[in-house]
Write a structure and sequence with these properties.
Layout (H helix, E strand, L loop, with lengths): L3 H119 L4 H56 L3 H21 L4 H19 L4 H19 L23
Length: 275
């Protein structure tokens, strides 16, 4: 009996300490879980959830910005297309006037031939007819000068409109390239830049006075082509700057001021006296 009592006592003590150690271990685990939740949840929110939310908001804002820019570029394209249509209409009208001028030239040549016959008839008349002859020769000379002036003016206007049309087409190419970049199509954007460069070169060939400025624009398109090939973020801003520069240049240019042709505003000419 005396031996069993101590063994039972120490067994109770050992059980108590096992229970105490188990309780401490459980409490430690609970404290660790609480600490992990207390410090871990904010860390996960700040480093995982919050960046995802911010990135999602930025992506949505960027998509909205791209959509707005595309709408603005579509409006620019529409306005530019209207300007191109108007320029083409002006060019067509000028070509019709030039064709009419050719008809007037043929009619004037017929009148000159008739006048030459009249001169031949007047050469054998009296001295009073010599005054008529001089007047008729002066009228023929004036008509020839007027016709040449009008033909030259119309040809210069046609050249100017063709060059301006090429400038507007180059700005349209730049807008097209800008839209292709927004659609992540750099190859198409480079092709559009090549077309813009060709249109600028064509305009420079038509009007040599623009050569210096257009050479600078052409050099900028080559720089843009390199930036697009390198996927540089500068390509968009540089392209917009070049588009604005060419648009301003095409807008302010005016055809050379020439004297008004009397055939466009005809004056009455004396009628040669009857023979």
């Amino acid at each position: 009996m005396s031996r069993e009592e101590p063994q039972g006592f120490w067994g109770v003590v050992a059980g108590f300490f096992r229970f105490l150690f188990t309780l401490i271990f459980v409490i430690a685990i609970l404290v660790g879980i609480a600490a992990a939740l207390y410090y871990g949840v904010p860390w996960v929110y700040q480093n995982v959830i919050d960046p995802i939310q911010n990135n999602s908001a930025r992506i949505a804002a960027l998509e909205q910005q791209i959509e707005t820019m595309q709408e603005a570029r579509q409006d620019d394209l529409h306005s530019l297309q209207e300007a191109l249509d108007q320029t083409e209409a002006d060019l067509t009208d000028l070509q019709e006037k030039l064709a009419a001028q050719v008809e007037q030239l043929e009619a004037l040549e017929t009148r000159v031939q008739r006048s030459e016959k009249r001169i031949t008839q007047l050469e054998g008349t009296t001295s009073s007819s010599e005054a008529e002859l001089a007047l008729l020769e002066e009228q023929i000379e004036q008509m020839s000068e007027q016709l040449g002036m009008q033909t030259s003016n119309l040809q210069e206007m046609e050249t100017f409109l063709q060059a301006r049309l090429l400038l507007l087409q180059s700005t349209q190419d730049l807008l097209h390239a800008r839209l292709l970049l927004l659609e992540d199509n750099p190859r198409g954007a480079r092709d559009a830049l090549t077309a813009a460069r060709e249109h600028l070169q064509g305009a420079a060939e038509l009007i040599p006075l623009w050569q210096s400025t257009l050479d600078d624009f052409i050099a900028q398109t080559e720089t843009l082509d390199q930036l697009v090939a390198e996927h540089s973020f500068r390509a968009v801003s540089e392209m917009e700057s070049l588009w604005a520069a060419i648009t301003d240049f095409a807008t302010v240019q005016q055809p050379a001021q020439t004297a008004e042709s009397p055939l466009l505003s005809p004056r009455p000419t004396p009628t040669p006296p009857a023979p």
